Amino acid sequence: MHMHASHRHEASAHASAQHMLGSMNRMLWLGALLNLLYVLIEAGAGLWTHSLALVADAGHNLMDVLSLVISLLAFRLLRINPNQQFTYGYRKTTILAALLNAVILLITVGAIGVEAVKRMIHPEIISGIEVSIIAGCGILVNGATAFLFYRYQHQDLNMKGAFLHMFADAVVSVAVVVSGLLIAAFRWYWIDPLISFMVLAVILASTWKLLKESLRLSLDGVPKDVDVQDLTRRMEQVKGVKNVHHVHVWAMSTLENALTAHVVVDQQLSVAESSRIRHELEAVIREMHIQHSTFEMETPAEACTHTDCCTPANKSSSFLASHEASYSHH
Predict the structure, then answer these.
(1) What is the pTM of this model?
(2) Per CATH, domain 2-218 is 1.20.1250.20
(3) Domain spanning 228-324: which CATH class is it, in words?
(4) Which terminus of the chain is more exposed, N or C, with fewer CB under 10 A?
């Protein structure tokens, strides 16, 4: 009965994950196409009005399109089944893509910052009205794209990166509209770089968080939504579990977490009791946002008495209980 319930849960969770992945894929494609269209329009308008600012911003938006394509590629690799060379498949590419997008955002912030410094020292005469009109179109495109990604930003790092890209561009466009109107009314050409610095500070704060999280997951750090101490405590509350140690938690992808742990149980356990403990442990880790787990069950006599001092004899008498849940493609 436990086994049937576990299979039903796995099938349901897998179907839910695939549905969410498909939705995110569609949103990324739509966002990439919308922004590519805007890049073409903005570059054309910049060449027509001889506005270097618009041409430069078109290049910046092209980098955003590239970041969306990188996320799409990562999600495509996520669907590839594991093989003999890559037993986990290519799940980790989603984390690397998020890290790359964070780096691209930082490079973009640096490039805009350098240009803002130049314009603060040597303000350029620009047509405020024309710039405001084009930037107004940017608000619509970037704002609509950010809205598409908003609901997924807390579920996946790549979607969070895409949302930050688009939201940052929408904020930049708002600032450009305001500065364009002020320039048209008062000829305050210095207002453009000043507002740019304010916007960059906001973008940098958000990007830094994305960079830290993606770098931590790249180094197999514990995902931020998993509390290892609380997880261990809840596992030890399962009836029949005496101790849980050697707990390791890491992200297999931006959507999936994994765990390995040594679980100390009573010396005399029936097969049914051992199966119950395993299923209850699986239920605990699912609630803690962990989809894949491997438990090494030990008796008190077999358990290590000191950290990292398990003897070969102890290890040989223990057994593995593996659980591949939710998103496994094996």
Answers:
(1) 0.72
(2) no
(3) alpha beta
(4) N
